[in-house]
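User: I'm new to structure prediction. If I give you an amino acid sequence, what do you actually give back? Let's try with this one:
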Amino acid sequence: MEPREFLKAILYTREEVDDWFTGKAFTRSKYDSELGYLFRSGHYRDGIDGSFSSYDFDGDGSGPRRTIMHAERPCRINTYGDSFTQCAQVNDGETWQEALAAHLCEPVRNFGVGSWSVYQAYLRMKREERRTPAEYIILNIYDAPTGDHYRNLVSWQRILAGPNNNFHIFPTQPYVKANPAREEFIECKNPCPTPDSFYNLCDLDRVYENFKDDLVLRVMVARANAKEKTAEKSYDDVASLARAHGIEVKVNSPEALVNTVELILDKAAIFATMCIVEEVEEFAVAHGKKVLYVLSYGKDRIANMIRGGRRFDQEFVDFLQRKRLPYVDLMEAHLADFSHFKITVEDYLKRYFTVHYNPLGNFFAAFAMKNTLVNMLDPKPISYRSRV
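Assistant: Good question. You get back a string of structure tokens that encode the predicted 3D arrangement of the chain. For your 388 residues, that looks like this:
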């Protein structure tokens, strides 16, 4: 497979784009010129036991998810991130923000959006902190094989996700180019910053010209060639890409091809997040804010660690410790929690997860981060004061 062939298979039709902009199809999301997309309010059958989940976003996506507990009180905690911040697959009142708010007796805003990168969360933080500022910020970073670290590098989500999804059109988005070997970190705006420019994604020549050198495209083409047993088509390109990222390796087999593109992506993704966190900290200092980083994980990552595996993001954890930044590691919280059970890994994870956290999982996450958050808050929440 060649890049042009790959891109041809994921082009939008003009009808698809028309339907997205008018809300006739791909109804979960809506276009945003800076961030790529925001989510709409909706009612979807994705909850526990086959139930529907209700999602209400202020301004139908332009604001936070509906705030319920203590919404009438001043808010000093804003939260940002992807679907593990948005709390996909549960109702508005079942999020970890609402569990925290109920316990702290003060509201906690939820600005999470599913499938976002750390970079998108950071850009939204800068936007929202101008409109509805808070002294304390929780930045939730989700780790999975296609999680927030990787999405930093994604210019067009459809390259990564493919075309088949009835809920989400997987649009273009702001992204970064990152190369730790060169200490290169370049911030790039949404490639389609106007509705008119979005229609260019229906034209193969324009799409190819825009994305032919895209890192994620080159990785996905290599993966496709390895899968289709035409790996040799990508050997030279991936070897060149590896050298540019400071990796000296022979790419002469399908296994070497896959391992090399994963290594390139891993190193660039983690480096990108570290650079973004440094920008978050600069922003926080300049605006008198304090940031708590929360590391969340999919159930496959947790299962791997319980069984004695190695964590993918150890370099990032080491970075947070080296910088002495406050963080909550939900991986460690789950490992400690599992030690109290005498059940299988699968049965343990069913307690807390559908694909995302179920209501009990969000409660678990809230109370895993509660102590660190309370220690940061000044003055203490009402529930931690001797006098109200």
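You can read the tokens as a compact description of the fold. Here is one thing that stands out. Residues 69 and 102 are 6 Å apart (CA to CA).
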